[in-house]
Amino acid sequence: MENNNYQNILLGLEQQIRNNNFKSKEELNNYIIYLKNNLIPSNILSNEKVLELLNLYDSMHQNDIPELDMRNYKGSSLNNQNFIISTQTDTVLKTNSTNEDLNKEFKQVQNEITSSQTQDELANSDIVFAEMKENRKEELTLLKEMILIKKY
Fold it and tell me: CA 131, CA 49: separation in Å to the nearest integer?
């Protein structure tokens, strides 16, 4: 019976997300953390369920201004290949995402990191880029090679 109560809380939370009751993704994340720490056991409110809830929030706010600060990252293309570039470090990552999908890709990785971490905050764009660099994308030295080519 208690399991049904947890499921009802989660169904209510999904409805709150659909009804736009959270002012921001961070507010939603804080509420999820509260539920995890105080009301719902982790086997019910699992990392997968948290990811599902964060993705639901993003799907309901597709046209909003991105909450991730993306000013230090940009998408670029060259010869049908897409790249994510850190404008701070000139680090280049190869990606399948187009420039238009860059925010979606960052949001998805942010959701995955946030749902599986123990920190009480959303992953920022620097954390997302570092995760992509370390575990998901091929890092290129394209800029250095282009500079060498231009010198000769």
Answer: 21
Cα–Cα distance measured from residue 99 to residue 102, given in angstroms and rounded to the nearest whole number: 5
* pLDDT for res 15: 94
Transcribe 61-91 into DSSP letters.
TTTSPPSS--TTEEEEEETTEEEEEETTT--
Give the pTM: 0.68
| Cα–chain center distance at 26 | 12
Closest CA to 92 of 139, 135, 129, 134: 139
Confidence of residue 152 (pLDDT cuts 50, 70, 90): very low
Helix axes 47-60, 102-116, angle to 10 degrees: 150
**Percent of the chain clearing pLDDT 90 (strictly above):** 9
The angle, 0 to 180 degrees and rounded to 10, between the axes of the packed helices 2-18 and 25-38 is: 170
Confidence of residue 31 (pLDDT cuts 50, 70, 90): very high
